[in-house]
Write a structure and sequence with these properties.
alpha+beta, Dna Ligase, domain 1, D-amino Acid Aminotransferase, Chain A, domain 1, 4 domains, 5-stranded parallel beta sheet, 22 strands
Length: 427
């Protein structure tokens, strides 16, 4: 088989790395890819939103399967475009990707089908939003309705902060049209857990749980980012939580989408909050998380191409999804100092060769490229996902942080407390 992967981040590197292990696949392309992805795939200079060029490329190269990694093309309808041309593609159609593309849609869906989530209101008029805040309980959460690179969520502690947040999202348009409509949501307390799942339109099969660290700085301080690190499995995702979510969240979501005439095929990412009143949905994503993919896919024991095809064909019930439950994985993001606001790019990266031939250690590239001298240099806010597997989370965490020392580049920045909750449990 020939496989095309669309995207350029750490998630797409993890997908390409996993696809490369398939006995069915002998050629992988990635558009546009990055320096790390080029080790397992041929990168082609086509942007993720250049649908016509991607279709033409898939036809020219006789691609057997295209895997869409990123949210923007999914929400933009790339799957519909590929299907119309008779091309085989993994990911939800546009009318199903709205589950991520519009927070207002997903909240209304949960309300209609009694899927547990935080109480909320939606607004298209900033004046009405400000009026509502006067009577709301603080802290409170503001969410841009559309896609905002994982950064369109503001947790506001005071009324003044919340009013400033409405201004930022709706008036100053910090995230462009994503802030035309906003969701104002009650603030939930508890632990966050991410659960990725494969879906074939009818049934859902859960991958291993993971736990993300969204804030830029240690101690969960600073701005929201796309994710500064992750670990899997989450010790807080217990058997009881799993049973509750399967009954009241996972399958009901898939059934709701089907009932709405929007059957979902692909990956649903369930962002959960384990509240004192039980698990509730924080958000849905319509694709693999980043960096969740980097900690979950190393523990997947199936041939991932078989799973992708089962989702497309509606035969997921025939797949026995297996994960290495005797191992745990931790990913620490090496970022450019200043991320997620302002940062410099183009610094040479040293030490990548130290990962070669080492079991249990991986380095997934998020923001890298080759410079004119053929050197790998930084090319983004999140640069690398340094990932390690161990016999338990404590060992995996120790190994991941050791491996961060192998890499050096100017303005390298990371959090030092990824998975600290694990140490708290073990101590």
């Amino acid at each position: 088989m020939k496989v095309l992967i669309v995207g350029s981040g750490g998630r797409e590197h993890a997908i390409a790395w996993k696809v490369a292990q398939s006995k069915k696949v002998d050629k992988i392309y990635c558009a546009p890819g990055n320096a790390g992805i080029s080790e397992v795939a041929e990168c082609v200079p086509i942007g993720a939103m250049e649908f016509d060029k991607l279709v033409a490329f898939a036809k020219e190269k006789e691609i057997d399967l295209t895997v869409i990694g990123m949210d923007d093309p999914l929400v933009g309808g790339i799957v519909d475009v590929f299907e119309k041309e008779g091309l085989r593609v993994f990911g939800p159609r546009k009318n199903a990707a709205i589950l991520e593309g519009s927070k207002a849609f997903s909240k209304d869906l949960m309300k209609k089908y009694n899927i547990p989530t935080a109480a909320y209101e939606t607004f298209t008029d900033p004046e009405k939003a400000l009026e509502y805040l006067e009577t709301a309980k603080m802290p409170i959460v503001l969410k841009a309705d559309g896609l905002a690179l994982g950064k369109g969520v503001l947790i506001c502690q005071t009324l003044e902060e919340a009013k400033e947040g409405v201004k930022t999202l709706m008036m100053d348009k910090k995230f462009g049209s994503a802030g035309d409509e906003i969701v104002i949501e009650e603030f939930m307390t508890g632990r966050e857990v991410s659960v990725l799942s494969f879906v074939d339109g009818n049934i859902v099969k859960i991958m291993s749980s993971a736990q993300d660290h969204k804030r830029a700085k240690d101690g969960d301080q600073g701005l929201n980012t796309g994710g500064m690190g992750n670990f899997s499995p989450s010790p807080f995702y217990t058997k009881e939580v799993d049973e509750f979510c399967k009954k009241y969240i996972y399958q009901p979501t898939v059934d709701a989408m089907k009932a709405e005439g929007r059957p979902f095929k692909g990956v649903i990412f369930f962002g959960l909050m384990l509240t004192p009143d039980g698990p509730k949905v924080l958000e849905y994503n319509a694709r693999f998380g980043d960096p969740e993919a980097q900690v979950v896919l190393p523990r997947l024991e199936n041939d991932i191409v078989d799973v992708f095809e089962a989702c497309i064909d509606g035969t997921l019930d025939q797949v026995d999804l297996k994960f290495d439950n005797d191992r745990a994985t931790v990913c620490v993001i090496l970022a450019s100092d200043g991320y997620p606001v302002e940062y410099k790019k183009g610094f040479p990266i040293e030490g990548l060769e130290k990962f070669k031939g080492k079991d249990d250690y991986y380095v997934f590239h998020s923001g890298t490229k080759f410079n004119e001298n053929g050197q790998i240099v930084t090319n983004g806010g999140r640069v690398l996902g340094v990932t390690a597997t161990g016999k338990d989370l404590k060992e995996a965490r120790k190994k991941a942080y050791e491996a961060t020392e192998w890499i050096s580049f100017e303005n390298k920045y990371m959090r030092h407390d990824i998975g600290k909750a694990i140490d708290d449990i073990h101590s």
